[in-house]
Structures are given as C-alpha cells and as structure tokens.
Amino acid sequence: MRIDILTIFPQMFDGPFNQSILKRAVEKGIADIHIHDIRDFTTNKHRSVDDYPFGGGAGMVMMVEPIALCIEKLKSERDYDAVIYMSPDGELLDQKLANRCSLYKNIIILCGHYKGIDERIREHFITKEISIGNYVLSGGELAAAVLCDSLIRLIPGVLNDETSALSDSFQDNLISPPVYTRPADFRGWKAPEVLLSGNEKLINQWKLEKAIERTKKRRPGMMEGE
Known about the structure:
about 230 residues; Alpha/beta knot; Trp Operon Repressor, Chain A; five-stranded parallel beta sheet; about 30% helix; elongated
C-alpha cells in the first residue's frame, strides 16, 4: 500500500512512523509512506497556505491552490483508490471501514488545519472523508496517523502472527475477552484455570462467553447492530 500524506507539519509524523509495527511495515516494503509539505506548492513568496475566510468569521482557511497543485501532481504520477480528507464531520472510522480501506493500493490523505480547507477542494478532489471521533483536533495529522495504523496492521505480512488482527476487538462485533500471561498466580491473583487447561474447545468457549459479556456491558449498541 502506498500512502501519500499532505500536511503543513510534516515533522509530526516522525514519531508514529518510525516506531513499532508501522516502521516494520515500511522496512519490509509492505507500506510505502510519503509525506508532502503543502507549503512546497504555494506560489506565495511567504509560503503562506492560509487566508481569511470570505464573508468574515473567526480563524483562517487553508487555500485551494497549493492543495490542488499537490494533489494534481500526485495524480499525474499514478492512479489512486481514494483521496481522503480527515474531517470531524466525515464518516466515523470503525473496524469495518478500516477493513475496507486496507484493501486499497494507493491513497492520498489530506490533513486539514485552522478552520478547515477551502470547500472547492472537497467538491473537486476529495472522494472520502473520515473522522476518528466526535471531537475536534488542532489538525488532521494525529487523525491521519491513527488511520494509517488501523489500515497498515491489517495488511498481510505486517503482523508476525497474521491471525492476530482477526481476533482484535470489533472484528466480529465483539470486544476482545480478557487476556492473561505469566505468572499464573501473582499476589494471589490467579489467571482463570480454563486458560491453563490446554483444552482448546473449552478455552474458545470461555473466550466467546467473556467477549459477549464484556461487549454487553461496555458496548451494548454493538450487540444491537448499531
């Protein structure tokens, strides 16, 4: 998967993409991530990418020209499955959406800032808008990093155990059951005997029961198909 990220703060991605699973995915050649500074595409001598909104109002708006030029350059070089804008009013990111997007080969992710982007970018270039929650961040960079992590870990070959992602919370509309590891007895706090039994059938039954129990308690809407 190739991911092109458009931002005015490229250094914000140094941490997330240079650690753990995302770093390994890039090193393996499974994920190909490119960060583009939108300021490199402005024709303004001061490298400005924002201006006051027409009609007045508080805050600044990201200008149409530098974003359009950046997207057009990338699209002239290859085809993209989606041009995604990280937006508070976009489709809410969940596991089903992550699963679908993980099948893409090439995507562009645009990170907004200030009071947002010129609407003409959304009208003429954006094909999908995604939100990571019903709240507002200072910019789209953190949201883009979350989206990338949720997609890349699903690509075959990224995780050491490819079955791991299949047992994650939300994959089957259930929250994952409790997990335990050594020691089996810590300060008298004991791991469930069934998990130590070696009986795969009983263990799987216990995991399913606990997953259902935890989902009903913490995310009842999931059980109702919401």
